[in-house]
Amino acid sequence: MLGLTVRWSLVGAPEGTEERLAAYVAETSHARFSQMAGLRHKTWRQVPGEWFEGCYVFATDGAREEFQRTFTAGADESPGSQIVGAPPILVEACDVVAVAEGRDGFLAAPRAQG
């Protein structure tokens, strides 16, 4: 599977940045990526005070390459960069070796509940 990771550092980010990122994902980003052509799925992850990232899995090489090219060209102005106050520290293509759905099932939601 064709992965892409985009990561921002949260080291030294203003207080409340993590909550602003979570709100942006819930209110805007989730809907945008839920119907994106060429995307199999996206996961947003963060370690408060350390980093925030988007993990993408694409259906084709072309879809991943186009997204990476377009994103990289505007990364400094992306919503994540605007919220964090800095561009991503990592934009990296990768291979996703496998995905397993556990017994409790997959939950696609704009905001995860702990």
Quick tags:
single chain; 114 residues; alpha+beta; Alpha-Beta Plaits; 4-stranded antiparallel beta sheet; 3 helices; 4 strands; 27% strand
What does the model show?
With 114 residues, the chain is an alpha+beta fold. It has a single domain (2-95), classed as 2-Layer Sandwich (Alpha-Beta Plaits). The protein is 32% helix and 27% strand. The chain contains three helices and four strands; from the N terminus they run E-H-E-E-H-H-E. It has helices at 17-34, 61-73, 79-84; strands at 2-9, 39-47, 51-58, 90-95. The protein has a four-stranded antiparallel sheet. Strand 2 and strand 3 (51-58) form a beta hairpin.
Query: What percent of residues are in strands?
Result: 25-35%
Order of helices and strands: EHEEHHE
Major sheet description: 4 strands, antiparallel
CATH class: Alpha Beta
Low-confidence stretches: none
Write the layout of secondary structure elements.
Elements: E1 2-9, H1 17-34, E2 39-47, E3 51-58, H2 61-73, H3 79-84, E4 90-95
Antiparallel strand pairs: 1-3, 1-4, 2-3
Summarize the structure.
This is ABM domain-containing protein. Helix content is 32%, strand content 27%. The protein has three helices and four strands.
